[in-house]
Amino acid sequence: MSCFGGGPNFCPECGNVLPLPGIADVVCCPGCSFRIPVSEFSGQEIYSAVVFNPVEQTAVSQDDEDSEMKGPVIDRRCSRCNKEGMIYHTRQMRSADEGQTVFFSCIHCRYQEKEDS
């Protein structure tokens, strides 16, 4: 006797969603040993659809010369112009058990360097 009653797409024994009928003449439940002949699905139309979210267009400025450099300024000497003052930001570029990568940008000459911490 079946414990579950939810429709033809569900296993009547354990309640799992049954896979779509394929080439085989039986559909097997992935959760238990229940089997149902494909002929039981005759007359049903089975379809699927993939719906993607619309892509939002954003105006991104590609002109870095006019963009204002933002971020915390630290007392670090630029290796190109030898002046103090660099902006930094961090990213987790490697695996989670390793340190972050710190990116530095000089506020005077815009030279960029990175440091793996």
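[next item in queue]
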Amino acid sequence: MSHPQTFPRGLAPDYRGVAVGTTLGRRGKNLFTPRVFQTLSRPLHKATAVFGHAGGRLVVPNTGISLLVPHGGIAEDTTWEMYMSINQEDSSTVPEDGAEIFLSPAVTYGPPGLDLSCPVAMTIAHCAEVAADNWTIRLKRQIQDKWEEVMSVDEESTSCYCLLEAQRCHVLLEQPGRYALVGEALNQEAAKRLRLAVFGSPDLSNSLGFTLRVYCVDDTPYAFQEVVVGERSRGGRLLEEPKILLFKGNTFSLQVSIQDVPRLLWSIKPFTTCQEFSFSQVWASNRCPLQCAFSLERYSLSSSQLSCKISVRQVTGEEQILQIYTSVVENEKGAVPFFTQSDCTITSQTGSKAFKIPPSIRQRISATFDTANANGKDWQLLAQKLHIDRNLGYFACQESPSSVILSLWEAQHQDPGDLDSLASALEEIGKVQSPREAGALGCSNEDSELTRLG
């Protein structure tokens, strides 16, 4: 029960002028449906760079989206100004099949007419829980206003290659355009990952007021980045490390409630302690962040601390608790960083610094494995040792299968120590005796470089 005499003086305005926490309709006592907010102008995320014969990598910072242009893919004495962009306003039309939902942002790379001698490798973050076979996931390409299927990620294709991981999908592509991952739930156990975050800021119209904003968004870096951009513009603070909730395709709604508010120190507007998103709002939520707000008011300026819990649960499903303990006084902030690591600002790398494998070693590996020998040590064995064990017919159609396999490996392995896994695979095959010996590839000058990168 709220204090009978003191209530908040209204809900804080949204940073774009739309009232947050506005209820759309009552769903029983203390249960309301929050508004799903369509932002008026969403940020355009784009990266551009000029690439030549040496290739390179494009990265859209803090979005989980990148594009690898292989060494040698562009003809010598030729350059292309290439770009990648994410702009959901232009590309979030729901697929014609009503059973499908977007599992990733829509990503465009270009320019149109790009002429490369080998595929590029695009990495796209997705929010599907793929531990069990509960989804049919497809790569689609937007042609004018329609999304057309390129391939299903679990089928064979000679025109495209998809390697699906737990949180990312690596795609080998030859045609510029706009692409996205869409999914169709095969049963009610199919689940998508939601990232839950709570931000707070003082009510500028009320010195005693404080607003908590709870976001439930697809668990992709891009979706959370949109939230971060909006909160930074309004001075919001991340009050607890975000958590992940598995939201199942079972038609049940999502409830967000505030609990354990110190009633002797704070009041909250009645009938707003529990708010609800319908199943369809959450299941197809990629177009705009879902948020609801709780407006609180302290009884005295001397009350500078707020502690409470935010419960986010799917009815009959999983629940997560966000524990809030924060100072509401501006000069006593103890904010949680927006990212556990520093924000990425690098949008492109060109030439050898963009790759883990030095170009000369890459060329020797390709020359060694593209042609089968008497011992059966060829590009298929290389693919097997690098755990690329399906849709091998795609590589068989390439001019240099080994080179394309290495491009896929480069897209997968972006951490500094990952070169060891390639060296270990080569050692198993018997082409390199140890991670420190590149002599079998005839590249003694690169031995120290391989060791250092590994």
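[queue empty]
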